[in-house]
Amino acid sequence: MKATNTDEQLFKAYLSKVKKETKIVYTWQVSILITFVLLWEIASRLYWIDPLLFSSPTTICQVIIEKFSNGSLFTHLEVTLLETIAGFLIGTLFGILLAISLWTSKRFSRIMDPYLVILNAMPKVALGPIIIVALGPGYVSIIAMGAIISVIITTLVVYSAFNEVDPNFEKVLISFGASKWQIFKHAIFPATLPAMISTLKVNVGLSWVGVIVGEFLVSKQGLGYLIIYGFQVFDFSLVMASLVLIAIFAAIMYKFVERMEAWLIKHSSS
Amino acid sequence: MSFLTLDHVSHYYFSKNNYTKALDDISFSIQKGEFIALLGPSGCGKSTILSIIAGIIKQTEGKVSLQKKEVETTASEIGYMLQQDYLFPWKTIVDNVLLGPKITHTHSKNTEQKALKLLKEVGLAEVANAYPSSLSGGMRQRAALVRTLINDPKILLLDEPFSALDYQTKLKLEELVSKLLKAYHKTTILVTHDIGEAIAMSDRIFVMDANPGTISKVFEVPIELRNEPPLLVRRHPKYQILFDKVWEELDQRENVQTKKVVSINNEGD
């Protein structure tokens, strides 16, 4: 009895140690944030930095509250979020489909190789003007920007994951006389699901880049538009407020995808 | 009438700046229900023979026929078991076993019952719904065996299926496989580099030679040993006699190989 007691105690001691460590980390994280905001506020009020250029946390809060209360911010937020989500989904889906088609034919993948390398190396946002000319100055172009930025990298990552699946799994299936599609369904797809999901996380960030740049170039709505507008009318509080919102929502989206990843991985393997 | 025939089969592996002759003029035939062991050093093309019979790779020259029909592509007629179990980690044991029927579109309530019956026979009834990762090596290999047997293949190809297991598990599994295959009258080809295993399990032993792969000698396992279970075979006095003969043959082959390599190296100088 006594022995189990001490075992239990040791375990409890370990748990409390872990808890304490987590607490320290949290404390530091919060204090860094508070210090930063406070310093910013003080520096701005005491004119260490130009408040016209760098604004201040309170002004930014005021702008956000004011814009939310008159409802104008909702449309901008909604437009940007929808564009980002659409771009993200389309980019990921097309990337995976392209990877599947490369996997289906070795010859096709060899033919496509140099083009993929060039497309991947190319800074996609540079295509912005051409996309706008082709698809018109509207949300279609912006979604296309959000998508195109993640398509090729998704293709390359997923295709290389396909190729890393142990060929012996394929061999087992071939010995049963499996077709290409059956091999994909039973071996390649489930084996590479984690890799595909992890590209989602990367793509969320990329789609934000594409959409914001797209909104810089052409738009009358959205957070990217607000940034450019604020810049042009010299309202840097508006620029900062938009940035803060982008940071918050990008983080929320990332966390959401991360949750989804954990859920999918858990439910696909057990 | 012979069941499986290999007729002057040769195979080359080509790469960009080289080619190797993996198999040279292999001919043999096997009767229905026979158990053959292919024994030889690594790199002698043992596994290549299995892949060709399974239709996974196409031989460069020669003909392979199963029941007088030429083997063109893989079919459910052949069961192939690999060195490691290669159970799909994302499928339960029973789903792994049912892969064959699902791929050949013969999956039904019947096959499901058959799967459970076979799993019970190899002592895996309790873990049918578990995932492979929670099973030991021996259990996983037994599950892989059931997966191979479920489609009722006419011929079984075993590619060193016991080599990744510890000795005790290996002996037990040999016992089980031998019992099952006898019960179901399966024709089997076992690839191995373990002389004892070859004698304990098979009816005939083909000793192979490397570079290029050829069959250098065929040993008949004495009739007294054939019908005994593997564990008892290993204790039989005739076992040791045959073991020594096979050992000598392999040893001689190795010496020849070494001389070959030495002479090639000397040429290079």
UniProtKB/TrEMBL annotation, chain B:
SMART domains: AAA
Keyword Ribosomal protein attributed: no
Name of the protein: ABC transporter ATP-binding protein
A family per Pfam: ABC_tran
GO terms, molecular function: ATP binding; ATP hydrolysis activity
Database matches in Gene3D superfamilies: P-loop containing nucleotide triphosphate hydrolases (3.40.50.300)
Domain (ABC transporter) ranges: 4-235
UniProt entry keywords in alphabetical sequence: ATP-binding, Nucleotide-binding, Transport
